[in-house]
Amino acid sequence: MSTELAASPKVVGAKQVRRALNAGTATRVYMAQDADPALLQPLEQLAAEKAVPVEWVSTMKQLGQHCGIAVGAAVAALISVLAE
To answer: How far apart are CA 67 and CA 84, in angstroms?
Structure first.
């Protein structure tokens, strides 16, 4: 998972993940188990509605590291980049 997140186009954060899910560009969502459930629950439900798989990561710190950022992340998504 870490190489997939590090090397692939992605968005990090609840707002960006919500946008990617609504736009249909999210291909997989990653959520930190220690993040606020009130933040994650609506995104998990939206991912289910859009048939996007969700993977759980142990901690926000670990998810942030996998994303290549210096802070923790509650949620991130891999996105498909369509050629124009």
So the answer is: 26
Question: Is pLDDT of 6 > 60?
Answer: yes
Mean pLDDT of the chain: 92
Contact 21, 50 (CB under 8 A): yes
Max Cα–Cα distance, the chain, nearest Å: 38
With a cut of 90, say whether residue 56 has pLDDT above it.
yes
The strand order across the sheet containing 26-32 reads 10-12, 75-79, 26-32, 54-57
Reduce the DSSP state of residue 27 to 3 states and report it.
Answer: strand
Collapsed DSSP state (helix, strand, coil) of residue 54: strand
CA 64-58-65 angle, 5° bins: 20
Structure tokens given for 6:
């590090």
Cα 22 to Cα 1: distance, rounded to the nearest angstrom: 23
